[in-house]
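Figure caption, in words: inputs first, then the predicted bound structure.
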Amino acid sequence: MLNGIEIKLNCNFFENREALEKIAEKIIFTGPIDQFYNYQFGELEYRSLRFETEILDEKKNKLYEKYRQLANQDKNVIFGGRLGQYKYYDMDKVILEVLDCVSNIKNATF
Ligand SMILES: Cc1cc2nc3c(=O)[nH]c(=O)nc-3n(C[C@H](O)[C@H](O)[C@H](O)COP(=O)(O)OP(=O)(O)OC[C@H]3O[C@@H](n4cnc5c(N)ncnc54)[C@H](O)[C@@H]3O)c2cc1C
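Bound structure (flavin-adenine dinucleotide present):
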């Protein structure tokens, strides 16, 4: 599956950002979306995503929405997974989401 694809293990995106951005036409980022944008609207809480009250959830979702809008304008990056999309995903859901994402990439013209 990964034939012909270079893999770097133990490579933190933020510690190698400049070099990685230079070599990539398109980045699929599965880390925290708020960190990707230097927390410019504030920090999103990840750990307690599932257990918060409705009011707190709403507040956090509004904050995420700001990052999502920023991400929509960013044509070189695709945010995937629970940290990139700020959603609780069970494994089956995250796999479906990845398949959808790949299919969208294949159908899109960049
Ligand atoms: C405690 C816990 C228990 C869970 N239990 C279940 C369960 O029982 N059943 C179930 O179906 N699901 C469970 N889940 C959910 C499941 O873990 C997720 O659905 C799945 O892991 C989401 O995949 P993902 O790729 O979105 O995120 P992750 O699996 O978190 O993958 C994110 C990837 O991004 C990489 N990354 C992040 N930041 C950087 C960076 N700065 N630089 C480079 N790489 C980076 C990480 O190394 C990681 O490989 C559980 C989750 C948690 C947290």
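The chain has one domain: 25-107.
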